[in-house]
Every structure is written in C-alpha cells, then in structure tokens.
Fold this sequence. Notes:
heterodimer, B: six-stranded mixed beta sheet, four-stranded antiparallel beta sheet
Amino acid sequence: MSLWKLIKRSLGFYWRTNLGVLLAVAVSTAVLTGALVVGDSVRYSLMMMVDARLGRTQLALVSQNRFFQADLAGELSAELKTEVAPVLQVRGLIANSDGTALVNRVEVLGVDERFFEIGARAGDEAFWRNWSEGVVLNAPLAERLGVAGGDEVKLRIEKPGLMPREVPLTPDSDLSFFSRPIVKAIAGKSQFGLFSLQANQLPPLNVFVPIRWLQENLGKAGQANLALASGEITAEQADTAVRKCWRLADAGLEIRPMPEQGVLEMRSRRVFIDQVLSDAAIKASDGAVGILTYFVNELRVGEKTTPYSTVAAIAPAGKNIIPPEMKDDEILITNWLADDLDAKVGDSVELTYSIIGPMRKLEDRKRSFKVRTVLDINEPLLDRELMPEFPGLADVNNCRDWEPGITVDLDKIRDKDENYWDDYRGTPKAVVTLEAGRAMWANRYGNLTAVRYPLAGESSKKIAESLLDRIEPASVGLFFQPVRLRGVKAGGESTYFGWLFLGLSFFLIVAAVVLTGLLFVFGVEERGEQVGMLLALGFSPKLVRGLLFIEGGLVAMLGSIAGTAAAVLYTKIMIVVLSAVTTGSTTYFHARPTTLIAGGLSAVVVSLLAIWLTLRKQVLMTARELLSGAAGRQFLGASILSRGRIGLAVAAAATVAALMLPSLVGGEKSEAVAGAFFGAGALLLTATIALTSSALKIVAGGWKKPMLSLAGLGLRNSTRRRGRSLAVVALLACGVFLVIAVGAFRHDPLEHADRRDSGTGGFTLFGESAIGILHDLNSAEGRRKTALDPNILDGVEIVQLRVRDGDDASCFNLNRAQTPRLLGVRSAQLLNRGSFSFAATKTGDISETAWDTLNEYADPNVVPAIGDYATIKWALGKALGDDIEYSDEKGRKFKVRLVAMLENSILQGSLLIAEDQFVKRFPSEDGYRMLLIDAPQDRADSVAAHLSERLTDLGLGISSAKQRLAAFSEVENTYVSIFQILGDLGLVLGSVGLGLVVLRNMLERRNELAMLRAVGFNKATLKRMVFYEHSGLMLVGLACGVVAALMAVAPALKAPGAAVPYLSLALTVGTIALSGGVWIWIATVAALSGKMLDALRSE
Amino acid sequence: MLELIGVAKNYASPGEKDGLCVLKDITLKLEAGQSLVIVGPSGSGKSTLLNIIGGLDRPSAGRVLLEGRDLAELDDVELAKVRNQDIGFIFQLHHLLAQCTVLENVLVPTLVDKDRSSKKQAQERAVELLNRVGLGDHLRYRPGELSGGQRQRVAVVRALINRPGLLLADEPTGSLDADSSNNIADLLVELNRSEKVALVVVTHSLSLAERIGDVMELNNGLLKSRSGA
C-alpha cells in the first residue's frame, strides 16, 4: 500500500464523481483551447492567403494608369539578380458564352511565363508555356461563370487611353475592348490563380491573358503597368535599381529629332507633360523651349470667326518665333488666320476654348489678345508638329471625323477649314506666350505638351540622361511597394479571434470552472467521513488535502487531455461557421502545439485553483465534525452574523469599478471597447453574485420571523448551503449574461432603412463599375452621353464616387486592412441630402454638417477622412484622430486622418475623402466607379435594370442598398450567433449544475424530507417546496445575468445602429426560465421518488 | 500511560451564560495493558471524552497527558503524529475506505510514515493481525464484501497496525448484532492482553462493558466508578 495506490484506488472507486469533474474540466479546456486555436487558425489562414495571392512576390511596382516599358522588368531582374515579372493589369467584365452568368468586376492580367514562375508551385501543369492565345481564368471566377477549359467566354476589357480620360481634349469613346476568347485553362491556387495585391479575404476574380495579346489589343505595345519582384530585396534596393535602369520611355516620354525645324522635341505619351517632368525637361539642356498647344473652339475678331483651331503657347527662349519682349496679352497670328478674320496688327482677337470640369463638364472660357505680328503660315518654326497627338484629332484625315473630346459643331466647319486641315493639319493658327497659355490650359495632368531643344546643342541621349538625373522615378509612379510585408502585417495585425473568442468564452469558462468546483466539492463531501477517519488516524490536514488535490489534479489533467481533443472538434466546427460568414474564403484548421499545450495547461491550472479553493474550506473541518457527518450540514457561524456586509461592500465596489472601467481603459479602439465590455461584465457579475450572497446571509441569519409558507421554507432552505446556492446562481448568471449581452448586439439593419439618416443613406440602389463613368448621370447631358433614358431616370438622384482600390476594410475581411479603399466624394451632395448618420466626430458635432470636416485641411499633408463605424473600429482597429499613411500615385506619402465616423452603413469597407483631395492625390483615376442611387422604391427594379443594361460595357453591377446593408449585418449577426452558442453552452452547464444541486440537496436532506412526510406532508407538497427553493435560485441567477448584461452593454448600445431587441431578449429569458423550471421539476421528481419514509426508519 | 487531570468541556449555548458543561473535572489514570470501559446514557459526553483523550478535541480546562506529554502543548502536526503513532481509534461506524481492500485499509495508517523500510514489516504485521482476527482469507476483499462484524474487525486491526500504546473504541459494537458484538468484545480483550495496549472503550452497552474490564460511568459530566467510587 502506498499513497499513490490510495489515490489510484480512489480515482477508480469514485469514478462517477471524477467523471463529472473530468467532463467539467474538459468543457473549460475545450472552450479555452478552442478559442485560442480558432485564433491560430484564422491567423494561419491569413498567412496562407498571403502566400496564395503573392506567391514569392516581395515587392510590386504599381503604376496603374501610367505605363512603363515591359523591358524594364528584364533590366531590373538583371540588376537585382532576382525574378521580376512585368504585368499589364486592367479591369474588365466577363460573361459565359450565352451571357447567363456575368461578373462585372474582374482583374485582367496580361502576363508571361515570368509571372507564373514567381507564383506557381513547381510541378503543376505549366499551361503558360508557349501560350499565345486564349484566356486562363482563376478557379473562383470559372466557378462563378460555370465554365471550363475549352469554353468560350465574352470578355470586355477596360481600354486605357493614351492619356487619362479626364484630360482635356480626350475622347470619351473607345473605353473598352471586346473579345470572345477560349478558356485555355483554369488556374488554381498552386498556379498563382489567386494573385492579388490587396489583402482581402474574398478570393480575387482574375482573367489571365498573354501580355503581348493584351498589349496589342489595348494599343499598349511593349508596355506594362505592374512589375512583381521576388527575392530578399528591399523596396529601397529595388527603387535604386529602377533609378539605374529606367529610360525616358518608362516615364512615357520620348525625344525625337526634327531636322526641318532644327530641334529635338520631347513629348509625352500622355500628351500633357507632368509639371515635375516639364520643369526638369526645361532645365535638362540649354535653349529648351516649353510649348503648350491647345485646341480652341473659336477665334474671333469682331463678327468674323474661325472655328476649331490649334493655338500654341511658346516660351520666349532659344530659337523661337516668340520675341522675348512679347507680352502675355499679345498674340501672333498666321496670315491664313489674318485673312480669315480680316485681322491686322493691333486688333483684338478673342479666343474661346473649353476646359473639362468634374464629370467631364465642359466649361467655355474666353480670353482676348492683341495682335502683335502676323506670321507667314510657312514659317519653319510654325510647324504642324506643334500639335500633340490629341486622340481623335491627330489620327483622322478630315475635320468631320474629329472627336476631340469636346462638342464639335460640324456645321461650323467650312470647306476652307477642311482645306487647311489637308494642307497644314494641326499647325497652330496663332501663338501666345507660354505664361498666357498655361494660365488658360494648364491642368492637373501637365502644363506643357512639348519641350524643344536646339538640334545643334546636346544630343538626345545627353538630354535624356540629364532629364532622368533630375527626376525621381517615383514622381511618375515608378516605385516599389513592400506588398508581402504589408500582407504579412495585414494578417499579423488582424483581429485576433483567439482573444475575441476567449473574451466571450471567459464567462463560459468561469461557468465550467464553477461546475468543476461544485462537482469536486460534492465528491469531497461524499467522502467527508473518510476524510475525518484519515485525520483521526493521524493524517495531517495538509496530507489529506494533498491526497485529494493530487486526485483532483489527475482528474483535471485527464479532463484537460479530453478537452484538448474536444477543442480540435470545437475549432473545426467554428471554422465551418467562420467560413460560412466569409463566403468564398477558406479558413484552415491550424493548431500550434504550443497553443494546445498552453490551453490545456491553463485549464488545468484554473481547475486546480478551483479544487484548491474548495479543498481549503472542506478540510478546515475537524475529524470529529467530519466523522459525525457534519460535512453534509451547514453551520451558521459568526460570518452569518455579519449580515452580509462584506458581500454588500464587494457588490458596491465591483459596481463602481465596472462603471468607471470604460473611462479608465479609455480609447475608442476596438480592443479598448472589448476590454471594457468584458471587464465590466465580469465585475457586474461579481457584484450581482456578491449581492446574492449577502441576501442569502441576511435571510439565513437575520430572518427571525417564522416562515410559514412553502416558498418561505424553500427560501430558508436555499440559505443552508450558501456556497452551493451561489454556485448555481453564478453558473446560470454566466450563461444568461452571455446570451443577453451578445444578443443585445443583434439588430435589424433594415429597420428604417428607407430613411436618409439610416445605413442606406436613403439610397435604394448601390452600383459599382469596372470602368470609371466619366459623365454626370444626374445631368441631361450626362444621361444623353451615356444613352440613359431620361424618362426612366426621372426622379432618380445619383451620387457618384471616385474609387481608389485598396484593402477591403469591411467585416468580410479578417485581415487588418493597411490601406483601405478610398472614395472621393463631394461632401455637399451627401450633406444636402442628409444621407447617413454620424456616430462620432472629432469635433463632437454629429449633425450632418460633419460632412464639411472633409474639406477642412489644417495640414497640406493630411487629408481628412470619414469611415463607417465597423470599418474604423473593427476592420482598421483605429480611433478618431488616428492617421493612416498612403502614397499618392507619384509615390509621395500623405496621411489620411479619421475625423468622423458614420453609423453602420453601405459604405462599410472604405474611407471617404473630399473629391478634390482625391483628384489631387490620384489624378489618373478616371471617372466614378461607385454609384449611390436614390430611385423611387416602386421603380427601383426598372432603374437598376436600365442602368445595368446601358452601362454594361462599363461593367456596372447594381445591387439593392438594403441587401448590401443586410449582408454586412448578416456577418455581424452571424458572429453574434456564434457567441450566443457559447452562451447557450453556458446555460447548459448552468442547467446541469442546477440539476445536480437539486439532486444533491435532496440526497443530503432525505431524512429531513422523510420527517416532513412523517408529519403529514404529501409528496406533491414536498415537490412544490423543493421546486420553490430551486426555482428561486434559478430566477436569482437569471436576474443576476440579465442585470449584469444590460449594464455591461449599455455603453455599447449607444453605438450606431444598436437597437436592443427587447422582445426577443425577453422571450429568450422567458424560455430559459421555462426550461430551467422544467429541469428543476424533473430533478425534483427524480429526487423525491421512492419510499422516503425508509430513510427515517433506517435512522 | 494516560492521565487526565481535571478535564472539563463546555460548549457555547444561546440559553446558558457559561455555556453547556458536558464534562466536569474528569481525572483518571490508565497504565499500559490496562483497560477501561466508560458507560453512560446518550448525550452524557462519553464520545466527547474519548475525542479529548484521542486528541480529536481539546478540553476547555484540565490536562490530558499521554506518555507524560500534555496534548494541549502539541500543535496540529504533532498531535496528528501522536494520533498516528500512539493511539489507535475504533469507531462505531468502521469508516473503512470502500475503494481499498481489507489489507490496504489496515495499512492506511502506515501511509503517514515516509520510512519505506518499515512498509514491508507493516504489511507482514497487517497480515498477521488479520489472520489473528480470522480474516486471513479476506485480504483482497473490499469492505462492501464483508459483514458488519468483519468490517469492525478490520477497523480494530487498522487501529493496531502502528502498535499504539492506547486503543480508543467509541461504541465499537454499536452497529453490530449480538454475536458480532461479543466477538469484537473478545477480540478487544484478547488484543489488550496480547499487545499490552491500554484500552479505553466507550459504550452504553453494559454487557459489552462487563466483558471487557473496569467500568466507569459518565453522568451529568462527572465520571464515577461503576461501584460508586
């Protein structure tokens, strides 16, 4: 015989009790470890997603609407000694061959072998070898379209113009290119099919095409707008390599000799030369002359007019026709124009020209000049090459084919104008100073159309070198971004589900631990006399405690092992639910051994603590008391006489602490809010349970009047085993707390969704297009140009937003969005409508005037932004006043400062900034790709159908604003459901505890009950008494949970969109009470079955 | 061996200012191998006296000397050691460990001693004692497989396993039938003699008392010789 053997014997003999303890420990382990493993799995999946979408890509050069030579990739590869793949990336839309399945926004990626070598896993089918035609779809897209290899698809691809679509004199036609290619293959994850630079949860929808094919069809021969680099290189190293390898063509520039004019001319593919480039070009060589040529609507002298002409603005430098002393209000006209206008030196010539405002709204302006000189039309320095390659002008043979991007009244074009075009093409008919020209025609895309250098001066090579030395590649969008680092950060900083689950599971774990303690106590009490015997035989209390502790510890360890195994199952179930929430994304099960061990050990430690605490009290009894069976009786000691003052003090202190906690924790960030919620919840539960303890003490010790009713007797009885009663109350309170607290966050997003101050903003429809819409869809002109029927759109108001793609910062994305999608908005549109509601602002004013904060710039490098509550709090983990760093399209860093927070809305996932700031930072982002459409409810479907049909070439997809809002809320409500399941589990534990306590109490008091039977109580009466006693405890438990929950969620319920579903919560509480009552009744009936008087006889 | 000098015991009672007096000025002396039976009606304080003698309870006044040591001067650990080494307890309810075999139950008191070398000797003694009480064939039985008399015999052997100088028995036959009671009484007498152990038995059964030895009566808190001395 040994102590160890004694422990083993006890373990086996009391297996039922031990099994109960084991199961309770297993539950707490499963919940605790499961929560951590869920966190691990989500993190792991996000990291796997980084690998899937980036392959071995470390850095990416994303020039978007600027195009560089694809050859640059090869040179960078050689310089950096790593793989660099050029990509031509544009947006598009795709449908299956019969048009029954359409996907509006897809990424069309022109790639070659190098792309797949960076991303595809070795050993997979290399469909990209010798690939010259056909498209490859990624698996999610193929699934959406229902197509397979060999099928035909309809593909429409955005066709980037020579210059941005919003540049003056750019035609708004020819926006896309259509083809019907055959699907060559379907690219899975291992074949780099999920490539995406955005850290989004939902899989990208990619169409891969051969880069040459795409270049040819888009008129971008040899060009690319994205380069991916692998290898262990930094962005700085890569940028240095770009600086070393790049050429003028990569900046969209070219220098060509013009022997007839005796000059070298530098031009831009984008027609207008960026100011940063033009400034450098002027300084690149002596004798440089800046030129800005524009297409004017009219030249007028008196009643005589000449329509549609080019006018050049030339700097008075170098070899020139502009005399140095020429003033800015003077003009040189050709003799052709002088004849046409009957003008002479000194006459006033009025120029009428159009500039393009937002939404391509043309604005006619006029300016008058005094004729300084009349030039010969054949003046060598006045050549047709002064007109840049305006699309729609330079490439047509006669004036009637002009499409200059402004309205051309063909009736005004005369034969002589046609003849001029035939003879002189775009030769300017007049010349003004460069300063005058810039004042009229400079725009955000540039302030020159050409720079000319003397041919006799430096060589074009020298000039190019000098020019490249003076400019940073980043200023034309050529800079690398650490996309992998950003992806890893997005995954690493994501909301750690482990803590979130653990936080919400905390109350369940507490319940399981309380149950562990309760069951263990039952076991020890059952063995009270045995313990007394051991003490009598000379075992010290410490040794007896040690024996029981080791026994309990072994049970806890076994429970922990079982619980760890159960945690795996628990996690897998949670993953299934989470995957359902984020439809389309995959969450992989991933349990780190350290997490399993830590979770298991933590549960053991917590359980041992509970066991130790209960043991401490149990073995405090003397051997004599234990041997006399006192373990089963409650002794009313001096503590009762304190009349529960300690409990009241604890309750008061915990309540005060709970109320102060939110301000103590401080901050508006999600972690702080969650921490305050959990902390306040725990404190409030402590307070209510302490209050209950006091109440029990008061009833037990201070109630002097006889209790003559059955309920009164029940109440008295519940004070006999105060610890046990409190355990039941705590168990139920934990479960109810979770169910109520979490349930309070469930809300109906569609309540009042028609109102403008709701989450829909009063919009009925939400649209997103693949290709930017250039026109104002509210104006008659805009509707005409986009072929929209004014009758159908009568009474329809559309708010158009510019879009800069970025990370999805909505609840669909588990990553921590690093650079969320930006929306450019004219705040007045939303302000005037009173759309959406503000939850909080930096200034504290939450009226609709908060929209104006978008236009308040204290710092030129800081852009104010407004986001949705869920976006700022949860997706970004930020608070008002926080900054997010962005790079503009020229690589200049700027900060987006969160100044106001909208209530939950359809704008979730993005940040809104003022449109003028948007345009300033991202001038190449053409048009508007997001539409908020306010259509009469009864015509919403027809409006949606009409817009979709007419703007289908732009890939416009329209959905119901309510559905969009509901989709976001559905995700939130699903999380709520998950956490409510935890609450339900807590209630199950509570019910089990309640049932066990009923049975145990009845077992201990069987003699007493038998006595009551003997004195004439019938069974039904006894059942009622027992029922009153325990249902009282249940109701107190419910009340504690409900009160604590409502107090804990009260601050959060001030949050936007929060509306307590009182009815459903009341029903929930009612159901819990009903089910608790049923269980108590069942346990009571079971406990009081059999011949109770036998117990009396045996005594 | 055992000496009680002026032992008294009071319990706090709401109705009485000085508390409820259970034992009054108890003085007695017992030498090794001697036996004493204390009788008295229910509630007379017999068990309380036995608990005080056994160190399970402390007197309100007076001294309890065991082998010359005042139990009042011992701390809990020392007192536990005394109970383990010097005193053997037999209870009305045998309090056997249901999870252990007969042999294991007997050996339970030896578990307190960490000296592993004595374990084998203890086991040999346990077997020997069990043979003596007629349970040599029941070493691997569980308490649940024994009769009431057999269980009590196991409890008696358990009380003797550490060779205590004093054996205390509280209503050792209280839960047994007449035959079993007689057997236990005979066993106690036999062991008292053979083991040279001082024996104090508390019972309300006069027949048992007379089978064992000197009888004293406890009444109204006072201990008097049965003969009135």
